[in-house]
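Action item from last week, closing it out:
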Amino acid sequence: MRRVVEMLEIELNVRADEALSAGGTSKPRAYERYLQGKGYLQRFDQEGNVDLAIESLERAAEDDPDYAPAYAELSEAYWQKFNETSNRDWVEESLAAAETAAEKNPRLALVRAGLGEAYRRTGRLDDAIDEFKPPSRRIPSTRRLAPAWRGSTPIRGSPPRSRSPASAGRRAATQSVGGS
C-alpha cells in the first residue's frame, strides 16, 4: 500500500502514515510465514493444517518478535488446536498469544479484536466488551494484561511443549511468579 501512495505522490498526514504502517513487519520472511500460517488456518478442517499453522506462525513471531499480527493469528491457531484436542492448555496458550499481540501493538484493530475474542472465550466478559469498544470509549486498565486469569481459569495439566522462545519465556515467567 505504501508503494501505491509513493507512486501516486500523495502526501499523508501523520495519522494516515501511522495507520498505513501499523502492524507491518520489515522482515519479509516473517510476513511470508505469517501468510502461510493464515492460509493453513483458513483450512483448519483439513487434517494437520492447524499444526502447520502453529508452526508457521510461531516461526513468523521468531523472525520478528515485535510482529503483533503473528501473535494475534497464533492465538487463533492455538484456539483451533484446543477445538481439535479439548486440551485446556491450548486455551492458556491462546490467551497468552493474544495478550502478547496487544503488548506489541495495542492500537491495531486485528489485535484488539483477537484479544476481545480470547477474553470472551475464557469467560472474561467485561474485559471482552471493553476490547470491542472503540478506542475512545475503552476504560484504561492494567488488569486486562495482568496474568490474573491464570489463577481463576480452571486449567489443569502441564502446558503444551514449547516450540517458540516466546512460549517458553511466558511459561518460565508464570512458573517463577506463580511458584509452581
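Closing note: Residues 68-85 form the longest helix (18 residues).
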